Amino acid sequence: MTHTYRIALLEDNFKQLDKLESYLSQIPNVQIVLKSRDSDHFFQELPNINVDILVADLDLGNDSMTGMEVAQEVKIPVFFASVNTADYIEDIENLKRDAEICVDHITKPYKEEQFVKSFKRFLQEVNFFSPPQYVSLDFNKKKNRILIDDIVYLCANKNESNNKQIYFINRAPASLIDFSFTRMEESGLLKSQFITVHKSFRVNKKHIKCYDPKTEKIEVSIFDGHSKTKSDYIKVAENYQPVIRKTFG
Fold first, then answer.
1. Within 13 Å and on the Cβ side, how many CA atoms surround 152?
2. Which conformational region is residue 100 in: left (phi greater than 0), alpha (psi within -120 to 50 degrees), or beta?
3. C-alpha distances in Å from residue 146, one per residue of 27, 184, 191, 247
4. CA Rg, the chain, in Å?
5. Quick one: which H or E segment has residue 104?
6. What whole-number distance in Å separates Cα of residue 112 and Cα of residue 24?
7. DSSP conformation class of 199
8. Proportion of the chain in helix, strand, coil states, percent, rounded to 5
9. I need a labelling partner for 45 at 20 to 30 A (CA). Which of 8, 63, 152, 190 fits?
10. Cα–Cα distance between 88 and 104 in angstroms, integer?
């Protein structure tokens, strides 16, 4: 499965924000999931969204934080697009070394072609230095090493409350033995990766195609056990609809 990078934009100038969105839309396997013009809004929305890469301006105007300070706090790969990158070169180098993340920059003004080429090169670096994330899960009393991106969703087993069913994009469903949603993070399945759509369902954000407010269901694709995938639709409980609608509507 091709990995789609989920991008957050942080730029105080709305025209520049629109330009960034336009330029990034030309790059394959990129999805903009968050657009912010200030750090307050950015950090307010961040817990509800799984972000892979931050694209940020270094100077956020009258904001209480700079783009550099935001990047230092979130510690995810960051691509700076700013007029004053030269003033931050030492900070950029320190961030890349100390946080051990991919960091690059481009200085304004830049042409569309320059940005696209620079960002594609940055994605290659991110891909190279970001190894796949695996977890070890217990299926039928046997430990299995599973790629997190292969997991589509987990749901409660109606017949055995202590167990869960787990569905994948590339293999048949399986039963998770003695697995608790309240202890998911201890297994390596983070809240930033999996979203609750019902008290009995935890869904990998990367596999949610869309949310239909009329049917109140999300659409995902799962492996059907016969060498192909099929669409699956999961009902979103009323308590979780506002978050799902805001994120995927």
1. 26
2. left
3. 29, 14, 17, 26
4. 20
5. strand 103-107
6. 10
7. T
8. 35, 30, 35
9. 152
10. 12
Tell which residue, 50, 23, 14, has the closest CA to residue 247: 50
pLDDT at site 99 = 83
Domains and CATH numbers, the chain: 5-129 (3.40.50.2300), 134-248 (2.40.50.1020)
Question: In the structure encoding, which two tokens stand for residue 102, read together?
Answer: 């991919």
Quick one: tokens of 111? 């042409």
Q: Are 39 and 56 in contact (CB under 8 A)?
A: no
Which tokens sit at 31? 């999805």
Tokens 């869904």 belong to residue: 203
Helix (H) or strand (E) holding 95: helix 89-98
Q: Closest Cα to residue 147, out of 245, 1, 27?
A: 1
pLDDT one digit per residue (tens) for the chain, 249 residues: 456 788 999 999 999 999 999 999 999 989 999 999 999 999 999 887 878 899 999 999 999 999 999 999 998 999 999 998 989 999 999 999 888 889 999 999 999 999 999 999 999 999 888 766 788 888 876 788 899 999 999 999 776 668 899 999 999 999 888 888 988 888 888 877 899 999 999 999 989 999 999 999 999 999 987 778 999 999 999 999 998 988 876
Helix (H, G, I), strand (E, B) or coil at 48: helix
Q: Name the strand (E) or helix (H) holding 8.
A: strand 5-10
Q: In this structure, what token pair is assigned to residue 112?
A: 């569309």
